[in-house]
Automatic annotation (TrEMBL):
The keyword Transmembrane helix does not apply. This is Glyoxylate/hydroxypyruvate reductase B. The keyword NADP does not apply. InterPro entries: D-isomer_2-hydroxyacid_DH (IPR050223), D-isomer_2_OHA_DH_cat_dom (IPR006139), D-isomer_DH_CS1 (IPR029752), D-isomer_DH_NAD-bd (IPR006140), NAD(P)-bd_dom_sf (IPR036291). PROSITE patterns: D_2_HYDROXYACID_DH_1. Pfam families: 2-Hacid_dh, 2-Hacid_dh_C. It comes from Pedobacter hartonius. It is an enzyme of class 1 (oxidoreductase). Keywords: Oxidoreductase. It catalyses: glycolate + NADP(+) = glyoxylate + NADPH + H(+); (R)-glycerate + NAD(+) = 3-hydroxypyruvate + NADH + H(+); (R)-glycerate + NADP(+) = 3-hydroxypyruvate + NADPH + H(+).
Amino acid sequence: MNVFITRVIPEAGLQLLKDAGLQVKQWTEKRKLTVDELIEECKWADALLSAGQQLGREFLEASAHLKVIALNSVGYDNVDIETATRLKIPVGNTPGVLSGATADTAFLLMMAAARNAFYMHKTIIDGEWDFFEPTANLGKELTGGTLGVFGMGKIGVEMARRCAGAFGMKIVYHNRNRNLEAEQELGATFVSFEELLRQSDVISVHTALTPETEGKFDAAVFKQMKSSAIFVNTARGKIHNEEDLISALQNKVIWGAGLDVTNPEPMKSDNPLLTMPNVAVLPHIGSATETTRDAMAKLAAGNIIAGLKGEKLPSPVNPEIYTDSQHN
Ligand SMILES: NC(=O)C1=CN([C@@H]2O[C@H](COP(=O)(O)OP(=O)(O)OC[C@H]3O[C@@H](n4cnc5c(N)ncnc54)[C@H](O)[C@@H]3O)[C@@H](O)[C@H]2O)C=CC1
Ligand SMILES: O=C(O)C(=O)CO
């Protein structure tokens, strides 16, 4: 059977597919496929392993023969899951294995924003490091401050662990449901969204992108945050309104920001956020460590292999397609 892969993936995942006797074709061009190209490539395939490709209704309906789609990500906001489910195509993702690495990135961005780190780095490159200035380049200390986690799921918990452990930060969170384990382990307190904005010195976003969270952090929300607060987003760029964020930073409505995700991606190189001292931006590298990317590729390969055997995926996004008892 044949597997089409939309990007080059780590050898660890590729080997699993080959060991299972599957024919594999990887897209090696440094650009995404168009919908038509993807439809064409998938005519040959029984399974698709997709990294960062938009999988909309047109593609899915033209590729209804696929026995499984495995995403090389935990986020599945770029896939029309409703259509995949209607067509009975199982979709798998990669939860858990990337939580630590992504939380590391959130922590890094929080620190970099708090200490103007990326901007300071650039001043050295620009030859502006001249003398020790006691009143210049001052950042914020986070020890003893309050971290507000929006979305206390797997990555949110890892971020809270780092902040509670490293800086003794108090943890407040807002989530769909209470996370009793996080409350017990970290002394985290569940608060309303408004209270999260009011209390937090740092707000770190860790929800999925959904119709509910899209555009959630806008001008009105930034206004409710502390003027000394740092906004961190490693989830999805569409969860904040970028124009409103720029304006909130320029007008000192909030103090700083750390972003691994932007809207659009890639961010244009003349974006004003890139020249603000208290802002740190990374090009969506949240899960980008060798260990984590290997684990993601292995999990994605596991989803493909199970799907091609007609078995329930190790990590299914739409388990509701399995209605018969054989998969229970
Ligand atoms: N920057 C990067 O490279 C990466 C980004 N991500 C993003 O991080 C997101 C979170 O990943 P996980 O922690 O694994 O997911 P998760 O499902 O474990 O956690 C998400 C949490 O958000 C909560 N939530 C969802 N909608 C909400 C709402 N409207 N209000 C309040 N809480 C809400 C859920 O109840 C859940 O507890 C992914 O969906 C993905 O978009 C994930 C990995 C890497
Ligand atoms: O897994 C995801 O959702 C990412 O954004 C990349 O790891």
